[in-house]
Each structure stands twice: as structure tokens, then as C-alpha cells.
Amino acid sequence: MFGGDIEAVFASEGLVSHVKTHRVLLPKIDAARYGVNAAEPFLLFQKPQPKPKL
Fold first, then answer.
1. What's the structural domain count of the chain?
2. Counting beta carbons within 10 angstroms of the beta carbon of residue 17, is it exposed (0 to 12), middle (13 to 18) or buried (19 or more)?
3. Which of 10, 23, 36, 43 could form a disulfide with 31 if both were Cys (CB 3.0 to 4.6 A apart)?
């Protein structure tokens, strides 16, 4: 699948992955009712926090 390695690609560029499935993030939501694929990943990446200078 195209983009199946997107998490590794972004992480290799220094971003911190916070990827989780919709099932984990939205456990009480009726996925079928709202058209959410519960097994699909929710892609969230963050720039690393700079280390404090001493």
C-alpha cells in the first residue's frame, strides 16, 4: 500500500511519532455511525523538544 511506511519515513527525518489507532483514541465512539475505520491509524507527529541550555 502506498504510504504504508509513512511513520518510518517521518521518524527517519527526526519527528517523534505519536501514532495510535482510532480504536485507542476514541474507544466510546460508534465507528460505523461516524464513518471511522477503528483500525486505521491517527497520524500525529511532533518536532522534538530542544534540550535546555545550561
1. 1
2. middle
3. 36
Where does residue 54 rank: exposed (0-12), middle (13-18), buried (19+ CB within 10 A)? exposed
Place of cell 541550555: 53
pLDDT tens per residue, the chain (54 residues)? 567 888 999 999 999 999 998 889 889 989 899 998 888 888 999 999 888 888
Distance CA(34)–CA(19), nearest Å, equals 20
Q: How do strand 16-17 and strand 41-42 relate by DSSP bridges?
A: unpaired
What domain range is 41 assigned to?
A: 6-46
